[in-house]
Structure formats: C-alpha cells, structure tokens
UniProtKB/TrEMBL annotation:
It comes from the Bacteria. Residues 7-201 form the Ketoreductase domain. Belongs to the short-chain dehydrogenases/reductases (SDR) family. This is SDR family NAD(P)-dependent oxidoreductase.
C-alpha cells in the first residue's frame, strides 16, 4: 500500500532536479504521474520528461510525458487535457517549473524580467486555473503545491525578477488557500533548497552532496498525502535535511497618539516597540548570491 494509491499527480518542470525527484517519489507511493517539462530532445533522442516517464515505468509505476510550456493559458489547459486523456482525473498538482535570468537591476533588460515572471508567476496561474476548476467540479477537491523561494520571501542579490515572481507565487497561494477551503482544495507552498542545474554554477561540492532533491521530495509527499490531514495555506522551507515553517510575522507594534510626529515614531523604534529583532534564518539563501555585480 502506497500513500498515494489511486491518485493522479501533475508535476510541472519534472524532467530534472526537484520536479524529477518529486515525480519518482510520488510514483513510488502509487500515484500516476503527468511529467510535464518543455525541454527538448537530447542526444539520446528523448526529452527529459520522456526519460523520467521511462524511469517511473521501469520501476513499475504509471506515467505520461507532457511537453507544454507552463507560461501560457493554452499550455496550462493542454497539461490538464493530457492528464485527463491518460488517467481520467487529477488529485494533485505541483507547480515546480522554473528558470533563472539573474542580473543586478541596472543590467536587467525588460525581457529578463518578463520571462521569469511569465514562467514562474503566470505559469502558476496558467496551470492552476484549469486544474483547480477540475478539482472543484469533480467534487473531490485536491492538493496544490506551489513553489516559492527564500529569494522571494527574504531577497537575494541579482534576483529582483525571480524574487518578484516567487513572492507573487506566495501571495497567489495565500489567496488560493482561502478560495480552496470551500471546495476541499488544499494549497501548500514550498521554499526548497537543492543542488540542480538551476543552482549548479554557484554551489560547492559539499552543498551538492548535502542539498539533494531527494531530501526535499518527502516534504512534498507529506503535503500532498493524507499525512498532512486538512492543513492548508502553509509554507515550508526545506533543504539539506532541514524543514521549517516560514511565515509572515508582525511585531507587538506601536499605537501612536491621535496626533504624532515622525520623531515620536523614531523614539518608539529606538525603544524597540516597532521593528522586530532579526532572527537567525538557517539555510535562507544558503547557496548565496547567484549573480555578479
Ligand atoms: N534548486 C533550488 O535550490 C531552488 C531554490 C528555491 C526555489 N527553487 C525552485 O524549485 C523549482 C525547481 O527548480 P530546480 O532547481 O529543480 O530547477 P531545474 O532547472 O533542475 O528544473 C526545472 C525544470 O523546469 C523546466 N521548465 C522551465 N521552464 C518551463 C516551462 N515554461 N514549461 C515547462 N517546463 C519548464 C526545465 O526544463 C527544467 O527541467 C523552480 O521553481 C525553482 O525556482 C529551487
């Protein structure tokens, strides 16, 4: 008995890295997998998505490849159609596809900004909308996992485009979790850290050994399985064998008198009443700046 017997999962960007690890683990737990990835045919005559499908099938699992670009409405609808044609329903969606175009702001062209926002943030919208509608209409609900990043939640040098897209995905998820409650659709957000082709250029050999995609995959399995019960609307940071909730916090605050000055606020801040103490955030941006100034 697997944790996901009888379930169907769509995983975007699952031809490599984290998505591939999620696909392998979810398939091992019994889910039929739609392996989406738009990357083209390699020297072996196969696409990365086809290679992952072959791996899943040779381990006895069920999977189909789907090569649509997540960043278009037509692509999102076609991914759902591939899933329904192959397996008749969808219970799980993991929005994972992603790219980087790191540059400091003054060197960032409009195209570098647009493409990153299109693939990550708009891609999350494009795939989620039809899948969410299917989950709602089926009356059975489902689970959606969206992918944010500490670069969006905390910031990182050279990633104003990526940080904007990833913070946007976090906001998208917070609202979708509220909308999903009515229909039994749970929404989780993951901020992963793992060595992959995305981070290769900037990570050490030790990082590559410690931060494997396989050490993140069980967190996604927890999110999409009955193990997480009715939980929804939460974000987990996961990487290198470390998992923690990461969330927005407010301090105890300062209630100014009806009439107050900027100096009054400065005094309250000086007295420690407004700003919150910096906390040591383990593994946040553990792989460091990704772009040169
Ligand atoms: N690796 C990390 O440390 C890290 C940290 C924070 C967030 N993330 C996020 O995790 C996700 C996976 O990253 P990864 O490190 O495994 O990267 P990866 O490059 O190994 O895999 C991403 C896959 O997405 C595919 N893809 C890209 N654009 C696509 C599109 N438009 N349509 C369909 N497929 C597309 C690529 O072909 C690739 O196979 C990304 O969203 C990334 O931003 C990764």
């Amino acid at each position: 008995m697997g944790l996901l017997d009888g379930k169907v999962a769509v995983i975007t960007g699952a031809g490599a890295g984290l998505g591939r690890a999620y696909a392998m683990l979810l398939a091992q737990e019994g889910a039929a997998i739609v392996v989406n990835d738009f990357a083209g045919v390699g020297a072996d005559g196969m696409t990365p998505a086809q290679r992952v499908v072959a791996e899943i099938r040779s381990a006895g699992g069920r999977a189909v490849a789907s090569h649509w670009d997540v960043g278009t409405v037509a692509g999102g609808e076609a991914i759902l159609k591939d899933a329904l044609d192959a397996f008749g329903e969808v219970h799980i969606l993991v929005n994972n596809a992603g790219i980087l175009r790191d540059k400091s702001l003054v060197k960032m062209e409009e195209g570098d900004f647009d493409i990153v926002v299109r693939v990550h943030l708009k891609g999350t919208y494009c795939v989620t909308k039809p899948v969410f509608a299917h989950m709602k209409d089926s009356g059975r609900g489902g689970v959606i996992v969206n992918t944010t990043s500490t670069s969006g939640l905390r910031g990182n040098f050279g990633q104003t485009n990526y940080g904007s897209a990833k913070a946007g995905i976090w906001g998208f998820s917070n609202s979708l979790a509220i909308e999903g409650q009515k229909y039994g659709v749970r929404v989780w957000t993951i901020a992963p850290a793992a060595a992959s082709q995305l981070t290769d250029a900037t990570t050490s050999e030790e990082y590559k050994r410690t931060f494997t995609p396989e050490r993140v995959a069980p967190v996604v399995l927890y999110m999409v399985s009955a193990l997480s019960g009715a939980a929804t609307g939460k974000t987990l940071l996961a990487g290198g064998g470390y998992v923690s909730e990461i969330r927005m916090e407010m301090g105890s605050g300062f209630t100014p008198p009806e009439s107050f000055t900027a100096e009054d606020l400065a005094a309250a801040i000086e007295a420690g009443k407004v700003l919150m103490p910096e906390r040591d955030l383990k593994y946040v941006n553990a792989y460091g700046p990704t772009a040169k100034a």
